[in-house]
Amino acid sequence: MKYYRLHIDSKGSKNIYNKITKVLGIKPFEDEEEKKSDDFYSLWTYSFDEKEEDPYYDFINNFLDIIEPKFAELEKIGILKNDISFWMIYEYEKQCGMEFHPQEMKRLGESGIVLCIDCFEENAI
Asked: What DSSP assignment string belongs to the chain?
């Protein structure tokens, strides 16, 4: 299983959190338990989960397609590129392997967005 996350630091502000949602035009992932947390509005998250049998999800290009056209609008509400990160959380069995294409790495590098990868063994959490 792979979990892809687009994280944006919403500065602990419900107002900024809601503005990010409006600017991007997509609904963030909102876990009901996390909504009860005092720091719920500190991180805006868009989520996509991929099962082993699912077709490949090109999360880097898909996430860039979401945010690149909106960089100027995000900056107007106080969100800078260093407030944004892409996460790939990889649940593996026996071996963790991945590859990235040069074109998507180039595009990601030019965008200035941080890529984070976290791997854990299946059933470890």
From this structure: -EEEEEEEE-TT-HHHHHHHHHHHTSPPP--HHHHTSTTGGGEEEEEEEE-TTSPP--HHHHHHHHHGGGHHHHHHTT--GGGEEEEEEEEESS-------HHHHHHHHHHT-EEEEEEEETT--
Phi, psi (deg, nearest 5) at residue 113: -90, 140
* pLDDT by 10s per residue, the chain, length 125: 899 999 999 999 999 999 999 999 999 998 766 666 667 889 999 999 998 899 989 999 999 999 999 999 999 999 999 999 999 998 888 888 888 999 999 999 999 999 999 998 887 65
The pTM of this model reads: 0.88
Q: Per the structure block, which two tokens stand in for 25?
A: 């035009």
Domain residues of the chain, as ranges? 2-121
Both tokens of residue 104?
Answer: 């998507």
